[in-house]
Amino acid sequence: MREYKIEAVVHICEMAELSEADRKLVEAAKQATEGSYAPYSKFLVGAAVRLEDGTIVLGANQENAAFPSGLCAERTALFAANAQYPRQPVVALAIAARKGRCFLAKPVPPCGACRQVISGVEDRFGQPIRILLHGTDGVLVSEGIGPLLPLRFVDGDMR
Ligand code: THU
């Protein structure tokens, strides 16, 4: 048996340490929680996607009485961005979540299905997406989905 070590490096930043563009994206994700429809979980999630030309597209989780029919904020934003601007690569994605008026202290972790979709969007445009996970204690920054989804399944695995 061989040990295969997987290492992941991410950074936890104060808002002031982020670039102006990334700060703006995190603020947009916080603002996007206003569009959340979460009467069941009461967990309000917002996402903001920045495209290569600087366009920002927002998303928020949308729930349904038939639970699996809802969608997370990240996928809402990514699918909306790709549907409206199919030729614009996604360069960054920020996520924020709150319960009531209180944003989470720890950086909000995207679910597995959203990580897979982020990976697919990176593949589609052939470039990593900077991921900014907001928490009031700090913003977790990952340069691409790799650190959050090691050993991921990509298009090339089918060839
Ligand atoms: N949710 C997101 O929008 N993004 C995530 O990454 C985690 C979970 C939503 C889905 C559901 O509406 C609520 O949070 C509780 O799971």
Q: Which regions have little confidence, pLDDT < 50, spanning 5+ residues?
A: none
**What does the main sheet amount to?**
7 strands, mixed
Which descriptor suits the 3D outline? globular
Spell the H/E element sequence: EHEEHEEHEE
Counting helices, strands and paired strands, the structural category is alpha+beta
In the CATH scheme, the class would be Alpha Beta
> What kind of assembly state do the chains in view correspond to?
single chain
Number of helices: 3
* CATH architecture annotation: 3-Layer(aba) Sandwich
* Bound ligand species: tetrahydrodeoxyuridine
Radius of gyration: 16 Å
Number of strands: 7
Helical coverage, percent range: 10-25%
Task: Describe the protein's architecture and organization.
With 159 residues, the protein is an alpha+beta fold. It has a single domain (18-152), classed as 3-Layer(aba) Sandwich (Cytidine Deaminase, domain 2). Helices cover 25% and strands 24% of the residues. It contains three helices and seven strands; from the N terminus they run βαββαββαββ. Strands 1, 2, 3, 4, 5, 6 and 7 form a seven-stranded mixed beta sheet that branches. Strand 4 and strand 5 (102-103) form a beta hairpin. The mean pLDDT is 97. Bound molecules: tetrahydrodeoxyuridine. Residues 38, 41, 43, 45, 61, 63, 70, 72-74, 110-111, 114 line the site of tetrahydrodeoxyuridine.
